[in-house]
Specification:
single chain; mainly alpha; globular
Amino acid sequence: MQQANRVAKNTGILYIQMAITVTMSLYTTRLILSALGAEDFGIFNVVGGAIAMLTFLNTAMTTASQRFMSFAQGEGDFEKQKNIFNVSLVLHFFIGIVVVLLLEIVGYFLFDGILKIAPNRIEVAKMIYQFLIVSTFFTIISVPYDAVMNAHENMLLVAVLRIVEVVLKLGIAIAISYLTLDRLYLFGLLMALLTVILLVIRQIYCHKKYDEVTIQIKKYYNKSIFKEMTSFAGWSLLGSSASMITMQGMTILINSFFGVIVNAAQGIALQITGQLMAFSNTMLKALNPLIVKSEGENNREKMLKASITGNKLSFFLLLFFAIPVIIEMPFILNLWLKDVPEYAIIFCRLNLFRSTLSQLTITFPTAIGATGNIKKSQLVESVIWILLLPISYLMFTWGAQPKTIYINLIFMVVALTISRIYFAHTICGMSIKNYLTDVIFKGFLVATITTLITLVPVYLISESILRLILVLLTSSIIVIPLIIVIGLNVQEKTLVLAMGNNIIKKIKKR
């Protein structure tokens, strides 16, 4: 019950943060698209769009360091936590240097005929790329600090920093709307500076707050821990780099075959999906440390239960928003944006469907990582990710439409789902039969029934605000009882009820 209360508290804090940030982020995107125009917005998505991917890379690398931090906390070994922090600093400094060198080499080829960017905008695009490289280095060397915050489950700081971030981004959007300087250049510069400032704040806070955050490399350097962390971080970096390279490669492919206007549509799709996924990712931020600490306590059964419950709840949380948004996507985009880029609607629908499907196994990489045995799973996932690019390239050369790449992404997620279920079984001892019946079958049953009933207003009423409201209400009224009656087992209902009661009590006290 104490763990349920802690998860509830952290989840409540993050949801309050999201209530503030999601609306502001969507409005900020509207301002940025209006200020830059579709062409410059597409250029930023191609070149500077990798800055957004840094969040993904940072999360993946933080998870690797957090695994060792949380595991040591589960063991109750404070000195080992100091060893891990100092080793992690050294490791990520060298990783940062290597990644910067690789980015400089890749940049040489990108701007030498690969990217389709108007000649009068190529110099600005190159400057944005250099801003990206600076942000990348600071992001990587700050990973140990993010790992410490997550291991301590300090979601209040995470929430505060996120709110500060979206407020400053809104300020940037307003600024570029009124200034007469090159707006694309200014936007890239300010976004890079924002990334660096937020990371420095994290570092200062961690040094003041946590005793294990002390930089004494000679005293706390441990060769065996360095070797273990290097191996783990190497395989983890392989998996996260493969996914990052693939997603950014997808952007470059779309640019090469269809130009920056279609990249603008892709940018809208990523923004919509990213904001909606925040609801399920919020819960995972509070749950992931529990999964790793349970393994550190040598409690495999507890770790698996937390992981499986996390998959299910994450899927249902995103499903709650995904179904009505996918159905009413044309009306929502026209309501949100002044000018909706071509292909934005189909991109948003396919990408949101893909993201919802991926939630069914979203905690398994954490569970597998908690055991420390990630070599085979990361190798298989990397191959699956990388295969997307040559397959999509061949299909585009044969005349395929832009939406093909998102259809390929859906098939890739199916392959990743199969891979994760297999390794969760072989490495963690999870029962495949129980998982398929308790998570996959129940998840698809709830999704199918909700979708069919929610479509009824679409066939009865023409597109309008009234229909959007009816679709949202119908979906909400149907999906919540279905999740409770069909989706959750007895233990999960008890856990969710305890978390809900705890959040209500805390709200009443305030």
